[in-house]
Amino acid sequence: MKWKGVMPAMTTCFDKDLQVDHAFMTKHAQWMVDSGCTGVVMLGSLGEAATLTTDEKQAILRNMVQSVGKQVPVVAAISSLSTADAVAQAKQAAEAGCSGLMVLPPYVYKGDWREMKAYLGAVIRATPLSCMLYNNPVSYGTDFLPEQIVELASEHKNLHAVKESSTDVRRVSAIHALQSGDLSVFVGVDDVIVEGIYAGATGWIAGLVNAFPAESVALFDYASTGKTKEAFELYRWFLPMLRMDTVPKFIQLIKFVQGEVGMGNARVRGPRLELSSEEAQEARSVVQQALRTRPTLAASPVAAAAR
Question: Which end of the chain is more exposed for a tag (fewer CB within 10 A), N or C?
């Protein structure tokens, strides 16, 4: 398991009957891997995991392992209301052949650090798989401070990475300052990726990569290799779409963008609804402007080396 590079928080595609479209997901994952992505993260918030049954989750993981698992790591996001269910999910992901886990705090209950540490520890210990801690206080209401993250990593040798989505890029350097470099820090918010890399992040769990993988990989590579001019030129082009990853309807928006570029559709499961006509027109104008001014990119040697 290499925690490095651009790893999509992959969307879950649904057919016209709102059933999981495994054939398309195979095509979608391969497209992103061929574009230089270094792994795929399944069943996260962007993957609408809360609307999937246990059987559907297992089928998705097995399909991804079979489709791209020999090329890049397949990571399963673990999210639940209870410790017992989260542990069961972790074990099921290992049985499906996943290479790593991304561990979220428990849904709904916002416990203190003693309780959250016990929950996270139980999930991390459930398998020998390499784990990433997901810190997203904006969405989940639980904030893991840098000191707590490093404490958890010191006690669990298979905790190797953190997805930092607090939106505060100072957290990246704060985590690095407290540890010797064994813990990889990923940016989990699309519109702070360049700032996060310059603060020391070595990976990106990305959203808009589902529609623009080549541009996402190029942006990451430019920033990671010190090509500041190229990075900020591409960043300025990309930012209007990257900001779609930071609002409550980010799932609907990213799936809509996928549809606009011909790689997916806008279907979502309830309680979400597809964008209203006004919302869709606003999003379409952003995407059309991006497509009109889309930059020409070279192949990514950095992403290839990361794999």
Answer: C
